[in-house]
Every structure is written in C-alpha cells, then in structure tokens.
Amino acid sequence: PMHRGAPRRMKIVLFSREHIVERTANIVGCSEELKKETNATMSVEKTLVIGPTFEEMLHPEKIEPQVRQKALRMREEDPLDPINLYNITWRGPDNQIYYEIIPQELTNVEANIVVIYAKDFPTGSHKVGASYSILVEKELAGEVNPGIHVLVWPSTGNYGIGGAWVGCRMKFDSVVILPEEMSREHFEQIERYGGRVIKTPGGEANVKEIYDKSKELRASDPQRVRILNQFEEFGNYRFHYYVTGNTVVELAAKLARQGIGKGKVAAFVSAMGSAGTIAAGDRLKQKWPDHKIVGLEPIQCPTLYWNGYGSHDIQGIGDKHATWIHHVWNMDAL
C-alpha cells in the first residue's frame, strides 16, 4: 500500500517493477557553506528510490521475483547497490527466519530460549530496518527529497550506520552525528557507505550532546536540514512492531510444528537504546495478552529502574533517557 498512494502536493510517476518514484523539485535557499559541502551530491532534479513495504520486509517472498532474485545476487556482488534495500528482512534467501535456539546445557532452564539475529541484514544490524522505515515514510509523505534536503542521523552507533547506508542508497546526502568515543569501526563503516560524520564529546551515554548538535545544525539551515531522530520517529517503532513482532509470532508457530514449544512466546527480552526493538513486544502482547515484555539496562545507567544516570561502554543501549517511542507502561519487568 505504501507504493500506491500519492501524498498531497507530490507529483509522482510510478514504475512498479523497479519500485522507483520520480519527482522534480527546485532547491530552496540555503547557506553558502552547506551548498558547497553538498554540491557533489545534491542536484535540482533527483529520483526518489523506494524499496520494500513493511509486508515485503516481513514476507520477502512477496517481492516481485525478478527484484528479489537480483537483490539476493547483489548482496554478494555489490552490497552498496540500492537493490539491496530489498534485503532488509529477518529472513534468508530461503525465506527462513534467522534464529538460534540456545542449548539448555548453557541456559540451565527448561524453557526454550530463542535468539533472532540480524547479522545478515545489509549493514549487519537490524537498525538498518528502522533507518529505512523512517526515511521511506518521510519520502512518501513528501517531507524529504534528495534534490533538496540533507539528512542528519543522530546516533550512538548502528542506527547512524544504517542511516548512512540507507540514505546514500536512496540518493540523500547523509550526515551521522556520533560520539567521538565510539569504536573506530563505526566511523569507518559510515564513511565506507558514503556518509559524513560529525563527532560529539563522550561515549554511549552522552546522547544530550548529540541532540545539541542536531539542534545546532537544524537552526543553521532549517529549510534544508532534516533531523531523522530514532528516539522520536515512529517509523522506528512501526518497523519492529510489524516486521520484528510478526516475525516472532510466525517463528513460534514454526517451532511448534517441529515439536519445540507450544506455539506461544512467554516473554520478549530486549535491551533498550532507542526502544525501537522492544516495540515487537507490543505486537506479541496483542497476540498473547499474558505475554511478558522484559527490558534490560546497564547497571551503570539504570534510568528506568531507579532514575539513575551514569557512563558505560555497552554500545547500543543505556542512553540516559526514556524515549518518546517507548511504550513504557506496557513493560512487565526490567
């Protein structure tokens, strides 16, 4: 459905086979400094690149066969080709879900503990799904255009990496704001994907400094700079509620057919950063009302547990605040 409707004030021509939308726009006034920095990537006319729908990310077998086959081929041949947007999914080439069952010899409990993993997403992290969902919703609403806007991705790691990969594949100039103490691999990966980096003081728990820099950039050129803040954008929530949540529902049914479990998930456990992933628990609680949603926080930064604030180096979680998209009251344990 995302491909069919033309948002108001948006003139589009739709080519369903390539899932590409064309739109012409004129660059509006901006600072001379920003014009110079982005001259190589911005133009008066650019083509919007649109990838999969939420349903296609949940069930990639519903992608048009020639598109799906090309995406799988390019995953190995050219990981930076935009067709790889169609590889944003919890499922492999055989349409089977990526998961592992932890042996009871390790867990020492009778309940089956199942881990879904995201190493085979285009960037090696499921955060690329949140980055894509936020951006594509804004494209379809006419809020961003690669011929006009510079995207800013505030992050402490994988969301920014996902933003660099997604944004540049979708022809946007992408700037990632990242704390300077994050791992060297983070910065190298962003630059390899074509993004630019602005470093802020501190490490994982220094999110306020990222916000401050975002606010500064937006104020410097409000007509062109667009902040895609994972902590408040519900595209992040929707990706995990619909795609991750329903993936878990279907995995439970599959395991039950194999004699593992009873087709029901007792609890969903997720450590919160932006609190996007834990949105899957909201979907699971709709499916099973007695389902439990369990969060994790660093001992050094127990914000929800007892309003604690502290520094730590567990990259990806524990950012000293409860985010706008986190349905905190739906949690059962921490």
UniProtKB/TrEMBL annotation:
Keywords: Pyridoxal phosphate. Gene3D superfamilies: 3.40.50.1100. Its cofactor is pyridoxal 5'-phosphate. Residues 122-305 form the Tryptophan synthase beta chain-like PALP domain. GO terms for biological process: alpha-amino acid metabolic process. It comes from the Bacteria. PANTHER family: CYSTATHIONINE BETA-SYNTHASE. This is Tryptophan synthase beta chain-like PALP domain-containing protein.
